[in-house]
Amino acid sequence: MQKRSLHRDKPGWWRSALPNGQWYAPRQASGLRFRYNTPMCGRFTLRTPASLIVEQFHLRGELQLPLRFNIAPSQPIAVVRQTAAGGPRELAMLRWGLIPFWAKEAAIGNRMINARGETLAEKPSFRAAYKKRRCLILADGYYEWQKRGSKKQPYYFHRQDDGPLAFAGLWERWEKGPEPVESCTIITTDANDLSRPIHDRMPVILSPQQYDLWLDPELEDAAPLQPLLQPYLPDDMLARPVSTHVNRPTNDDPRCIEAQRELF
After folding, report:
1. Exactly one of 90, 135, 144, 182 is catalytic; which is it?
2. Is 144 a catalytic residue?
3. How far apart are the first and last CA of the chain?
4. Of 107, 191, 214, 261, which sits most exposed with the smallest number of CB within 10 A?
């Protein structure tokens, strides 16, 4: 299993998946350009204890994952994948924003943080990964912003029991730069009844019973996969308004998920 690259002198810091190998602080984001005008799904959390992640996703070894309250695009994110038939699942840290293997520049990944589930088999950017490189993106909640005139109210979506979530994802390996870059995208689908008043899309959330099928590296036929890309059951989810503290990706702390009365 691939371990996260942690800085021995800076607890909680990690090395970027980008070629420059930059070190990132837990609260340091990729830039203010992402603010709150984000697509679906454009921010999420991962606060689940590592021991529970190991148990639910059948991983081996120990994990070292800092608590994350405001994960933003272009940052390294935790995914589970299976690269060989019958082999073990592994945890990897991949850049959020898929860079197609054929792309000339890595910057294209900034526009590829989401992939519509309805068109995966058709889009050149995603169809190869859909056949051979599927993954689970680890999370336990995500944010969405509701437009209210000229303002936006952020909401936080999570399971009723606050347990871990597995977003359906795709990953790629890009080798046209100084060093290879592994990157990923979150697949989205139509919103369920809980999400629809806030946004018309939501991430595809898979159940544990679906993990094996989704991760199977030998399965290239889209027919059994497409039915998995459905809205998650709304009865198992909660949504609450949170403060605009989450709007800045540099804010990566528990205040991001604190319940607030609606602001606008």
Report:
1. 144
2. yes
3. 46
4. 261
